[in-house]
Amino acid sequence: MARVEVHHLHPTNWESDPEEEIFPLSTLDYLSGQIWCNYVLFFKLPSATPDSQSELITVLKAGLERTLSQVRQLPGVLTKHPSGSGLCWHKKREDTVEFHVQWLDNTAATGKNKTYPTFADLEKQHFSSKALGDPKTWSVHPFKGGQCPESHWTSRPKAAAYKATFIPGGMVFMMHHHHFSGDIMAWSGQLHQLAENCNAIWAARGTGSAPKFPAWDPACLDFSLTTKPDLPASQQVDGPSAAPERNAAYRPSKRLLFHLPKSKMAKLKKLAAPPDEDGEQGRWISSYDAYTAHIWRVLSKHKAALYEPDLKEALIWGEAVNMRPRFRDPVVPARIQSNFMSVAVSFQSVVPTMSGEEVIFSAPFWKLAWYIRQLTNTVTQDYVNAMLASLAPIRDKTTLFIRGDAFHPMTTLFTDWRDTRPCEADFGFGAPYAFRWLFESVQTGMFVTYPARVNGAPAGADEGTEFSLPVEREVAAALLADPEWSEFFEYRGVENDVDDVEGAEEEEEEEEEEAVAEVVRDRLSKVERDTVVVVRGVAARCRNASVRVRDVCGWLVTVFRRVMTKGL
Question: Which residues form a coiled coil (predicted)?
Fold first, then answer.
């Protein structure tokens, strides 16, 4: 059995805390899912010893205790507000947060018949969820991802828990965080506050001086700007009777990891620049607009071959928007907690929608990028204020959440995590080499932009942005072999292949498809690659006729090899 220690952490100076504290949810909090977010940080510790590990844990414990005294809702439980109006985080003086420490860094600890990844193993596989294996190994029970009864408010879920696991060459640090306690940038604020607290403690070791802790702005717990009081009972109305479930049209998928180098990003952004000759001025395109437009276009092309939608109809585009820098009156702290975010969704916007035909081939590329920029620009403080006013009459606001996979499978919903910058968080004992969301399944409705890896970056100075994208299994190989895609995006492997629906393809066939795609991508000419894109699309359709993709593509590669060696 692996060695595990369980610590129940109190906030610093908890003895003098109020007997209980109530932190009401903001109105915006209800638009998020009642799920635990499982954020994982990977630290490289090449020369760790039992003594250095013990010292690290001592510092991490003290840093967590101080952070819990600042981000004060974290020791609480999610429950009904004592007034009967909405939900709240209820913190009692004696409440604690679990911090588990686990050792999987030697055979004696793990057992001869059980193997776990080393830091080098994880780094080689780009720290994917698949490389980690069983999520339970790295998690605190009952914290798990996705929709589950344990994270619903009726189960009185905890806001947070932590687990540090030592592996050969490093440490995996899990930070569990309930989505009703904050969005990704709220977690980022906690992360950087924790890192600075730990850094101060680490720097003060052996000096005889007190740590020089960073400040914490109490305004980070003021959610009044995104909270509307409930209306009198006579003015309240019912919300949706039942939230829509996952769209049954989704085909089995897997989650793939890609990298966009800085040099390719610059090229893509240049291609997305609007022309000046049509008289329009001041149309600025960001890197985000450029890469999301390209992903939208190319991935939609392949998905359309599978789902066969009416391309005259509009495609749904949506994105999460961090509102912290967009609130100007007044300005809010960068580390403000809660779900201080909104969404831009094409069918709810004043910006005219784009048809599938326009998205996939007819509209100039710059128009796609400009369309996304226009959608983002509509999400302002005034927009959020109007939305809050419209939500105020809803009696039960927990009915407002809509899961991302409830829409048509051609839908693209992006979340941009670049500004979290976890690899820049210096804990004193080190900074993370990578950050990942621990995917327990594919989670098809979630397109993720990861922050750049700045420590031990695989591409060196050209290391750019990583993407975690859900891709249907029947189009994955065609996407990988598509020159329009591979011109910019580098494939870094499967992040998760546990599909959200039953009846997913066997892992063996999936790996064989990837192997074939690798051969196609690396060894065949551009003309041949274009042919493979077409043939793979046809081959994928043959599954229902019991024709295996690997047989068709294996034959295709054999023919190409003969042509290349012997000629026609």
Answer: 491-518
